[in-house]
Amino acid sequence: MTRYHTIDANTQDAEKPAGLVRKIARVAKRAGRTVIQKALLLYYAVRNPATPAWARRVIYGALAYLVLPVDALPDFIPGVGFTDDLSVIAAALAAVAYYITPEVKQQAEQAANRWFKH
């Protein structure tokens, strides 16, 4: 199994885009496992060298929407704050589904398990 990249919210290394990881980690508990696991699918797909440039742009846009403070629905609203983020992530996943390989799924699941101590 080839590993493209490992995310650990508690450590830093030179290979990681630390800002993105830090921002995702900051919203992880509030957003919940479902949103974050789907975001991790996108993250690992973008790190896959086989993912084409157009798909990377879609993924970066969706991940930016998740971590940036400007949203259609503010994230601080309980119960509905992350529904718009989930919608954007789901649309991006649908657009790049071909690049969500079994390996990408496994990496996302493992990272989500570490983050949410499953």
TrEMBL record:
- Determine if Transmembrane helix is one of this entry's keywords: yes
Membrane topology, from the record = Multi-pass membrane protein
GO cellular component labels: endomembrane system
Q: Where is the DUF1232 domain?
A: 56-90
Sorted UniProt keywords? Membrane, Transmembrane, Transmembrane helix
Q: Does the keyword Secreted apply?
A: no
Q: Mostly located where?
A: membrane
Q: Provide the protein's localization.
A: Endomembrane system
Name of protein: DUF1232 domain-containing protein
